[in-house]
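User: Can you predict the 3D structure for this chain?
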Amino acid sequence: MITYATFDDLLELDELAEEVITHMKESKIPQWELNYPRYEHFEQDVIKKALIIYKEDEKIIGCMAILPENDPPYHTISSWQKDYSIVIHRVLVDPSVQKKGIAKQLLNFAKQYGKLHGFESIKIDTHLENYKMRRFLQKNDFIEGDYIEVMDRIAYECILEDEHE
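Assistant: Here is the predicted structure, written as structure tokens:
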């Protein structure tokens, strides 16, 4: 089930984040350190009503934040195709259920959200060495953009097409 996170979910999300970060480090993916993303980042997302969670059997096994684009580093590159966009941050999936379609369902939720609210695209960034996320984004209609030097990340964008066109 996909729903919006509440303050009651924060401790479980923090535990999930620690598990995912540890798994990434073991996989030699330098996406995040143990201090990010954590409780305080998820708390800010909940305050903004931007944190989406995926629950199965009452357990949170995935999450992502959907926010309006306002990241200053995103304005340092010119490869973006659209201006009116949402940005996905903090995509986490429990390592024990990865490759089972959880991230795809979260992404589909974001695409539906974007279309419903009239956004032109979804933007996201990831570490150059995060081969899992890069492959996932490429498989799901995201176009690789420029390198965002100030963040040490690569940009991706998915154009949200009007289904009636």
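The domain at 2-159 is CATH 3.40.630.30 (Aminopeptidase). The chain has a mean pLDDT of 95.
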